[in-house]
Amino acid sequence: MPKVTFITQDKEAVVVDNVEGSLMEIAVDHGIEGIEGDCGGVCSCSTCHVLVAREWMDKVGQPEDIEKDTLEFNPDVTPRSRLCCQIELTKNLDGLVVEVPSTL
Amino acid sequence: MSELHDPFKEAKEKGPILVAEFQGEKIPMILKLKDIREATKDTETYSSDAPRRVPIPSEEDVRTVRQYPLEVDPPVHAEHRKIVEPFFLRPKLPEYEKKLNALIDRLIDEALERETLDVVHDFAIPLQSHALTYLLNVDEKEAELWIGWGIHVFKDGDGKSKGPFMEKYSEQMFLAAEKNPGEDFFSALNQAKFDGRKLTMEEKLGYANIAFAGGRDTIIHTAVNIVDYFAGSPKGLECVREHPQMVKTAAEEFFRVFIPLTHIGRVCPHDTNVHGHEVKAGGRVSLCWSSANRDPEVFKEPNEVKLDRKPNPHVAFGFGPHNCLGAHHARAIMRSLILKLAERVERIEVLRTIELVEHEKEYSRKVGYELLEAKFTAR
Predict the structure, then answer these.
(1) What's the pTM?
(2) In Å, how far is B331's CA from the nearest CA of chain A?
(3) Burial class (CB in 10 A: 0-12, 13-18, 19+), B273
(4) How far apart are the two ends of chain A, measured CA to CA in Å?
(5) Longest CA pairwise span in chain A (Å)
(6) pLDDT in tens, B71-80
(7) How far is it, in rounded angstroms, from Cα B346 to Cα B83?
């Protein structure tokens, strides 16, 4: 089972091991501050914004148009931005590192 | 389940806007999701700084106050929003869910005991009114008075606006909270500071006004439409019962298709060309959420209800800086309602209905029901 590291808004690394599935649900289940997932993962609310670590960007891939349009709602969107409800944590992404952006 | 009607389907096929007339004013309605999202971000071109004119039709004849934070623009908008935000985040607390579940259980108990009930007045209005006491953190007894305000505070079935009465009532609540401060919405606003000063009574009334009006008919119609949907689709109820984790996608899909708020307005401070239509300075545009939620360029089979639809980038709670403050509350109520109906109700039969339809010159849109007589059968 894969593991994922969340770099919190306080710059702490929270490692979650033996998990798979929706990255947003993993974050919410583990109380990662700043990831809300209000809409339950249907890409409607943009409250699960993360920044993918540079070395993982290729593997995670680019957002689809629907996600891109929703993401743009965030004033602090960057080229590394993704909505983590659209990222499925699989073996392929074992060791993934994402950062929770600080709120302005 | 048959296809749901989209009153804006033909208009969308013709182009990005529908020019419609409201109270003698020609207003271009922006119909497509992407265009609406763009417009919400451009607050200089499409401004909310328009007291009583953000809703369409406008509300100049039913309220005296500017609604906060709805009818102000960034950057001050953020400060106004911060004042009330803590209350609107309360639905995320675990104890909130418990209270909602207990309330819905009680209402389902009553519904099951009765031969028949009017889901609007015997179920949804009490649900909305009691749930609002939890949100505003006031004594639950207040709900009994609010229940009497009907479906819509400003345009109830008897044709008389409850607007003036609601403003008077809110003023009394603020004055009472001055004497006996507590942890409630009214006390918080009495103590709140904006730009280093206390809020005026008029400003406080503006906050209270939308707290009462904004989440009233919206919650009531959504709840009734959900009950109506499950009456026509017992399989849907069964599906949620077998897969309770589906509740979140199901709720979002109901928000998308049944959005009770057809649209909302923005004012153009300068002459603006809106997708080929000239709006003069001071004129308005409509952000037609209900049309955007059925945009075939975004949603496959937009007029079908799919309880597991994902992604579902609807704009039922608006979009951009003014996105709905009550969204957490609405989500908490509807998720709880869907799960409780699935858990406790075997079937719902609808016996008689009176539809509530918005009739405008260019379109008619069913938003819900004035009455929905039904029979609930327990599992």
Answers:
(1) 0.96
(2) 8
(3) exposed
(4) 35
(5) 35
(6) 999 999 999 9
(7) 43
